Amino acid sequence: MKEKFKGLVIGLTVGSLITGATAFAASGKMIEVFYGVNDIKIDKVSKMPAEDKPFLYNGTTYVPLAFVAKALGQQVKWDGSTKTVHIGETEGKNELYFERDIKHMNVQSGYKPTSHYEYNANNSLSDNIGNEYSNYLKIKMNGYVSDEDSWEYIEFPLNGKVKTLKSKIGLTDEFKDTQATLVVTISADDKVIYTEKFKAGEFPKDLELDLKNVLKLQVKVQKQGEFKTEGEIGLFNPVFTK
Fold first, then answer.
1. 129 and 196 in contact (C-beta within 8 Å)?
2. Which letter does DSSP use for residue 65 in this model?
3. Could you give the 3-state DSSP secondary structure of residue 16?
4. From CA 46, how far away is CA 39, in angstroms rounded?
5. Are 157 and 214 in contact (CB under 8 A)?
6. Element (DSSP H or E) covering residue 68
7. What pLDDT score does 17 carry?
8. DSSP label at 128?
9. β-strands 45-46, 41-42: how paired?
């Protein structure tokens, strides 16, 4: 028979889920939960917590967040200032991101390419080998456009406050079979500091740039070959350090 528990369980914060402590709010309602979970297995190994047992409520199984994360080898941190739970890697205090911290100052293009960048996006972007990212910059080249007109660049003001940029760079999953070659050129204060060609079947590459004292960063993509074919380049999880 399922063990039954009744109590005042309202205002149960993320902090209490992480520590396993009980939390109460000034106001609340009585709820009824059942301790009906006999075991938890992760990769076929029993990992049932000794304390803070999982329970069932309204058809949902509740398990302490810290227990699940640690069982999967991830760290858990609670940021009280932003009321955010961090599982796994956390953002450093010296890290900057497109969209959240750095927004573009200029976009120029040939004929109908499109660029887009996101921070902590609800809809992730995948690279051509299936890795998903919620932070990214992508630039798409459309088909039926001549090489001469198939280009776009986007510029960001750094104002000398950034030291480095680290990212993965390569084709996006949606356009991994493109027949075109995409040429990426990155310039710092109008001086080329990186250039690379990307084709179907190539792995994403590591990108690390020294941007000390740089005022303006430009990322340009140009399509070569195959008039009809579309293509798209992604900077996956680009992180600036200051």
1. no
2. H
3. helix
4. 7
5. no
6. helix 65-71
7. 40
8. T
9. antiparallel
CB atoms within 10 A of CB 45: 8
pLDDT at residue 7, as a whole number: 40
Residue 2, phi then psi, degrees to nearest 5:
-70, 135
Residue 92 burial by Cβ neighbours in a 10 Å radius (0-12, 13-18, 19+): exposed
| Helices and strands (DSSP H and E) totals, the chain | 2, 21
C-alpha distances in Å from residue 208, one per residue of 25, 40, 157:
48, 42, 18
- pLDDT, position 20: 36
Kindly tell me the burial class for residue 91, based on how many C-beta atoms sit within 10 Å of its own C-beta (0-12, 13-18, 19 or more). Answer: middle
Please tell me the distance from the alpha carbon of residue 143 to that of residue 179, in angstroms, as a whole number. 11
pTM of the full structure: 0.66
Per-10-residue mean pLDDT of the chain, 242 residues long, equals: 41 37 52 80 80 81 80 75 72 84 94 84 93 95 89 96 97 96 97 98 97 98 89 96 92
